[in-house]
Amino acid sequence: MDFRLSDELRLLRETVRRLAREKIAPRAAEIDETGEYPEDVFQAFKEAGLLGICHPEEYGGSGLGTLGLCLAVEEVAKYCCASGLILLLTKLSTSAIALGGSEDQKQKYIRGTCEGTRRGCFCLTEPGAGSDAAGISTRAERRGDYYVLNGTKCFISGAPVADFFVVVAKTNPGAGHRGVSVFVVDGGTPGLSIGKVERKMGVKGVPVSEVILEDCRVPAGALVGVENEGFKLVMSSLNSVRPVVAARGLGLAEGALQYAVEYARQRRAFGRPLSDFQGLRWMMAEMAMEIEAARWLVYRAALIVDEGRVGREAAPYFSIAKAYASEVAVRTAHRALQILGGYGYMKDYPMERFYRDARQLMIVEGTSEIQREIISRAIVDGTLNWL
Ligand SMILES: Cc1cc2nc3c(=O)[nH]c(=O)nc-3n(C[C@H](O)[C@H](O)[C@H](O)COP(=O)(O)OP(=O)(O)OC[C@H]3O[C@@H](n4cnc5c(N)ncnc54)[C@H](O)[C@@H]3O)c2cc1C
């Protein structure tokens, strides 16, 4: 067992760390304040060649895998969780295509993503179905060489700035999860439009909106993988992205602790720096223990993805990493805010933003409760291999 990162991964981490400090940290508060998508951050990622970290070189990526993407997202999320999501979307929007798409689809959408000429989003959730993914009602009907899509998706990250949409729909509505298929729809296709753009609590730099499909005609070639076998593809895609969501939590927690420690060293009360008080020192120790545990869960989960294991048998490991790291992010932001006292609550300091941003992580890509369902199912079934 080797806990050291390769030279390539260490170099990647250093590059992103520098970019995050120089270009993202100074923008983070403003991104949150305006709620505008940070095009400059996207362009900085593009110039630094960071939009294809996890994708193979044959499609224009760097071939550094999910672990590479997690390391990069961790560095970025130390300062700005929304910018971390921009990197995450390079995988979320393409994972179904990477796992089940045709060569043409990979050349078009994965290469486009790596080169920064295309931006995608992943459209699963609907007003009537979130956790219950098989309960979606968006319909795709085959008519000759076309499919016609009808339905409404909601809470779709990055949809207002996307130019391709990976849409999950029912091709056999009576067959439950056996009637689900995945499509990739180009922006500008007649019948596809952006609906309500949500006003949300945090992660404000990445807009979230409805995606409306009204008699939206797509060629048969827009089907990703095999008709009616899309549910497995969707679950595997979500599995493969969960370590990256967890990495956003890990980075956010590290950033919050780092800020709180620096603050506690400077701020004085009762004639001493706050960092002298045992009550706060132990709080910092708790945070550090949890962050360290989260780090290894996240890296291990990423390595499992990079071994090509993204199916049901590996699912609990992704769920453990995702649930734990996102909850560590929430707990750490909560404690770090407390260390800043009244200043933690004020917008002139970053902690209230960390606190709001962290809360998103326990909901997206499967809530904490759904992760516990996946984990407990594997425990009861006896399929967790360390039991
Ligand atoms: C900021 C943001 C961005 C998002 N981005 C995307 C995106 O890009 N693409 C996309 O498709 N979706 C996206 N989502 C949607 C997200 O994945 C869903 O909100 C999430 O899966 C939960 O679904 P829901 O909101 O319908 O809640 P529900 O499924 O209605 O759940 C409500 C509550 O019930 C609990 N619950 C549900 N079922 C069970 C159960 N079996 N056991 C125990 N508890 C249960 C849940 O954990 C939750 O606490 C985003 C959401 C947010 C907030």
Q: Supply the number of helical segments.
A: 12
Enumerate the strands of the largest sheet in spatial order, edge to edge or round the barrel.
Answer: 1-4-5-8
For the record, what CATH class of the largest domain applies? Mainly Alpha
Radius of gyration over C-alpha positions, nearest whole angstrom = 21 Å
**What is the CATH architecture assignment of the largest domain?**
Up-down Bundle
Mean pLDDT reading: 97
The biggest beta sheet reads: 4 strands, mixed
Order of helices and strands: HHHHHHHEEEEEEEEHEEHHHH
Architecture overview:
It is a single chain. The chain is α+β, with helices and mostly antiparallel strands and 387 residues long. The protein folds into 3 domains: 7-115, Butyryl-Coa Dehydrogenase, subunit A, domain 1; 120-228, Butyryl-CoA Dehydrogenase, subunit A, domain 2, CATH 2.40.110; 231-381, Butyryl-CoA Dehydrogenase, subunit A, domain 3 (Up-down Bundle), CATH 1.20.140. Helices cover 50% and strands 15% of the residues. It is built from 12 helices and 10 strands. The chain has helices at residues 7-24, 28-34, 39-47, 65-77, 81-92, 95-100, 103-115, 230-266, 278-306, 315-339, 351-361, 368-381; strands at residues 120-123, 139-143, 146-157, 164-170, 180-186, 192-197, 208-219, 223-224, 268-269, 272-273. The strands form 3 sheets. It has a 4-stranded mixed β-sheet with strand order 1-4-5-8. The protein has a 4-stranded antiparallel β-sheet with strand order 2-3-7-6, with no helix packed on it. Strand 9 and strand 10 form a beta hairpin. Helix 4 (65-77) packs antiparallel against helix 9 (278-306), helix 10 (315-339) runs antiparallel to helix 11 and helix 10 (315-339) packs across helix 12. The longest helix is centred in the middle third of the chain and has 37 residues, at 230-266. The protein is globular and about 80 Å long. The mean pLDDT is 97. Bound molecules: flavin-adenine dinucleotide (FAD). Residues 121-125, 130-131, 155-157, 200, 203, 208, 360, 363-364, 366-367, 369-370, 373 line the site of flavin-adenine dinucleotide.
